[in-house]
Write a structure and sequence with these properties.
mainly alpha, 9 helices
């Protein structure tokens, strides 16, 4: 970056009729220029401020004070003085110098967009100045690179956000799948438990029914055996009947004998 020099005053006013106040302003600016050339910037600042106390809108004093702040790297103060210079400048040359150095301030602050605009304004007042054209091209190139980097950063940030969202969604899916498997495992466990309980209940029920039902062997043992029926031959039947008839006759004879012996004699009296 190339900075425009301070305005030189003194000979410009020779042969002109000046008031005492105007003479004091010119003298303070002249002293400030000598001190700035000797790089005694704090003394130069005092001289320029003395000039401005007499004439607050003096473009030469504003511009040269701005250059002093720029050399002291007080860019905010320098920016303010250059802006005031172009505002009160009476010709295009003064405006051109003010905008050129204003662009230099923005370059120092890495505000390339404002630097490009400042150099554009300088070229509008003097389009042939090679130094301004060079600074403008440099500022524009830096601005393009900055915007490209910003776009790249935004894309990287968007990609990072998308990746984080994808990872979050994947984690959610994994959690859902894990919960699903867990629930499925619980259902299988419950199912197996229910089946086990059903089997156990059926076993208990079978044991209970088994206990309630007598064993077949015991039942057969407890039931009395039925007498076997045999068929009698006719001779055996006849012999059996005769035996029964004889037995019945003996019983009848015995009964009759007992009746005779036991019957008292009627009409017998005791003496």
């Amino acid at each position: 970056m190339i900075q425009k020099p301070i305005f030189i005053l003194g000979l410009l006013f020779l042969g002109m009729s000046l008031t005492a106040q105007q003479g004091e302003v010119i003298n303070h600016i002249y002293d400030g220029n000598k001190q700035a050339s000797a790089e005694i910037f704090d003394e130069a600042e005092i001289s320029y401020r003395r000039a401005l106390s007499k004439s607050p809108e003096k473009p030469e004093a504003l511009y040269n004070l701005g250059n002093t702040h720029f050399q002291e790297q007080d860019f905010d103060e320098a920016k303010q003085r250059y802006f005031q210079t172009q505002k009160f400048a009476e010709n295009k040359s003064s405006k051109h110098h003010a905008f050129h150095n204003l662009g230099n301030v923005f370059m120092k602050q890495k505000d390339y967009a404002k630097a490009v605009e400042a150099y554009k304004n300088a070229l509008r007042n003097n389009s042939e100045d090679e130094e301004t054209r060079y600074n403008y091209a440099l500022a524009k190139e830096l601005l393009d690179k900055e915007q490209e980097q910003q776009n790249q950063d935004q894309n990287d940030q968007q990609d990072q956000n998308d990746q984080e969202d994808q990872n979050e969604n994947d984690n959610k899916d994994d959690n859902k799948e894990g919960n699903k498997d867990k629930d499925s495992g619980k259902e299988d466990e419950n199912k197996e438990g229910d089946e086990g309980e059903d089997k156990e209940d059926k076993k208990d029920q079978g044991d209970q029914e088994k206990d309630q039902q007598p064993e077949q062997g015991d039942s057969e043992k407890k039931q009395p055996s039925k007498p076997k029926q045999t068929e009698l031959s006719p001779e055996q039947v006849k012999s059996l009947l005769e035996a029964m008839s004889n037995q019945e006759k003996k019983v009848q004879d015995k009964v009759n004998t007992e009746e005779v012996q036991g019957t008292p004699v009627r009409g017998q009296k005791d003496w």
